[in-house]
Write a structure and sequence with these properties.
Helix content: 25-40%
Largest sheet: 8 strands, mixed
Distance between the termini: 62 Å
Structural class: alpha+beta
Strand content: 15-25%
Strand order of the largest sheet: 6-9-10-24-23-22-19-12
Length: about 600
């Protein structure tokens, strides 16, 4: 017999009754029923109930053990009594009558319990992550992640992609976030950068002629944590294709993404390919966001024209000054008390907005402060434009052209959630396309890239030389699911002349481009195929499938919100000798010196 186990803790069934079996695992729980001691023995595969009779050596050994001790149990598989069968367990029809228990590792007093659903502070969970990972829900999430990655890898290979690994130590690149830098000991004063993404390398793989590349790529960005973004590092399905248009990329990846969500979605609805394509400008107008949740049926309407020159002076002045007024419907709320509207107005102010004006449409006409000062025909035009009926209300967000649309999207999301309009049990996908190539930097007032700087501008060189940069669209696209951005992608700029011009508009000289991207530019000069790709986030895919609101719940060993590893004690100070070896000297900011 094997030294540790003949079966796993999830394997024994009624057909195994009468066999001698050996199991190893953690003592999940203990129950003393007088002359009998029951334990649930747990491993990666499941639970098996073990029975130890009083008076035997097995009873005495288990009796003094704490839960989470690791033991090896040998005994006989017996059927459970009819009234004690547990249909919730795969092994629920049998139990193991222990004849021998060997303690492999005795557990100390636990900082947190594994059994049960008790909640613990993040500080405890992350410091003792190895214990937290034993808990059923977290364990299932991480197992799900592994299965999802295996499925993605299989589907990508079946679609004709080849997996490659790109360098981790590389040069700094303007990907929109801060790099993590690594001092180069053999080159004093110089640094490697950890890749924010394998962007340049995957393009070079296309130049090298491999046609279809992918990898489950680690990416590193020195940026703050949030619910759908892990600080420090994350993983993405990075892929690139040669000789493709934007539609080719969409048609290739959609069946893979939809297939993964159908495989692991447990019956939840999944958008069938082709996914809807929504231009960026339309997304901002109709949803107030470039990552809309399409489960929310609410649609935003521009009503600037209806308020231009109207009797409601505040909105009329905003319209006259070049601002916009957006209307967000709130169906079925006309009968709500005045406090409902006052609380929403107060909430809007807490968000930094001026407030939320509204009109209530009742059977005898429009009501409310705005309606009293607005011409009836204009109020009716707003009702028709928004598709409202008696019993509905509509709220207004007014302001600058670059601010009001975004806040209207926040209001739309709040109404969808608060009014119970977001249909659960669905994965609604879409592509956001035609992103602006450039945007105005609010701090410097200069033109800057708005998305991926390596994208091909729509219209190519002609657009760059003849159009206002802020009107140029790029072959850039995001894939969005349930309001979560899963990836950004683009058809790449494979022409050195177009790339130099594109960066020139963003304030980079030809020498700057040559210095920072000389490797890729040089490669393009020797024949580069048109190519494009994308990079859906693995962590976010699993977060959606696991129905978890925080991305840390699907990462094996996550950092905390401050980017610290509480379990391993990172980041940590290093010795002066090591710093000297790296030609480094620490100069702390004043606040960190004390």
């Amino acid at each position: 017999m094997h030294a540790y186990r003949t079966h796993t803790c999830g394997a024994l069934r009624a057909s195994d009754a009468g066999q001698t079996a050996r199991l190893s695992g953690w003592v999940h729980s203990k129950r003393d029923h007088g002359g009998l001691l029951f334990i649930d023995l747990r491993d990666h595969y499941g639970l098996t109930q073990v029975v130890c009779a009083a008076g035997g050596p097995a009873f005495e050994t288990v009796d003094r053990l704490r839960v989470e001790s690791v033991v090896t149990v040998t005994g006989t598989v017996v059927p459970r009594e009819p009234g004690t069968v547990n249909p919730k367990l795969a092994t629920g029809e049998i139990e193991l009558q222990a004849t021998e228990v060997v303690v492999q590792s005795a557990a100390d007093v636990l900082p947190m319990q594994v059994a049960g659903e008790e909640k613990y502070p993040d500080e405890i969970r992350l410091k003792y992550r190895f214990i937290d990972l034993r808990r059923d829900k977290v364990h299932r999430n991480i197992t799900l992640r592994a299965r999802v990655i295996a499925s993605i890898r299989r589907r990508m290979i079946d679609a004709g992609f080849t997996e490659f690994q790109t360098p981790i130590l590389t040069a700094s690149s303007p990907e929109g976030a801060r790099d993590f830098l690594v001092p180069a000991r053999l080159h004093p004063g110089k640094f490697y950068a950890l890749p924010q993404a394998p962007q340049q390398f995957k393009q070079l793989i296309m130049v090298a002629g491999f046609d279809r590349y992918f990898q489950i790529a680690p990416c590193f960005r020195d940026e703050a944590s949030r619910a759908d973004r892990s600080p420090g590092e994350f993983y993405q399905l990075d892929f690139e294709m040669s000789y493709v248009t934007q539609e080719d990329v969409f048609n290739t990846i959609e069946p893979i993404i939809a297939g993964v969500f159908e495989e692991f979605g447990e019956g939840r609805g999944v958008t069938k390919p082709p996914f809807p394509r929504i231009p960026y400008d339309q997304a901002m107008l109709v949803y107030g966001s470039d990552k809309p949740d399409l489960r929310n049926p609410l649609r935003i309407t521009d009503v600037t024209a209806q308020f231009a020159g109207a009797g409601f002076g505040l909105f009329a002045r905003i319209a006259a000054s070049g601002g916009v007024i957006r209307a967000i419907p709130a169906p079925g709320t006309a009968g709500n008390p005045r406090s409902f509207f006052d609380k929403l107005n107060e909430w809007a102010r807490e968000q930094g907005a001026g407030g939320l004006g509204y009109i209530v449409y009742e059977t005898d006409g429009p009501k409310g402060p705005i309606a009293r000062n607005l011409e009836p025909d204009r109020a009716e035009a707003i009702r028709q434009a928004c598709g409202l009926s008696a019993g509905d209300s509509v709220f207004f967000v007014a302001g600058k052209h670059d601010e009001a649309p975004k806040f209207s999207g926040v209001v739309r999301t709040k109404f969808g959630q608060d009014l119970g309009l977001i249909e659960p049990g669905r994965f609604d996908f879409c592509w956001i396309t035609d992103f602006p190539m450039y945007e105005l930097n609010e701090e410097s007032g200069k033109v800057d890239f708005s998305h991926n700087p390596f994208s091909m501008p729509q219209g190519g060189m002609e657009a760059l030389t003849s159009q206002d940069p802020l009107t140029i669209k790029a072959f850039q696209y995001d894939i969005v699911c349930n309001g979560v951005e899963l990836s950004s992608g683009a058809i790449r700029n494979h022409r050195p002349d177009i790339m130099v011009k594109a960066f020139e508009i963003a304030g980079y000289s030809a020498a700057d481009v040559e210095a920072r991207f000389g490797g890729m530019l040089n490669a393009f000069r020797y024949g580069a195929p048109p190519h494009g790709g994308s990079a859906p986030g693995i962590d976010r895919i699993v977060m959606l499938l696991a129905d978890e609101p925080n991305i840390r719940e699907v990462i094996l060993f996550p950092l905390n919100q401050q980017g610290e590893d509480l379990m391993m004690g990172a980041p940590a100070e290093v010795s002066l000798a090591r710093l000297k070896e790296l030609s480094l000297k620490i100069e702390l900011p004043p606040k960190a010196r004390g």
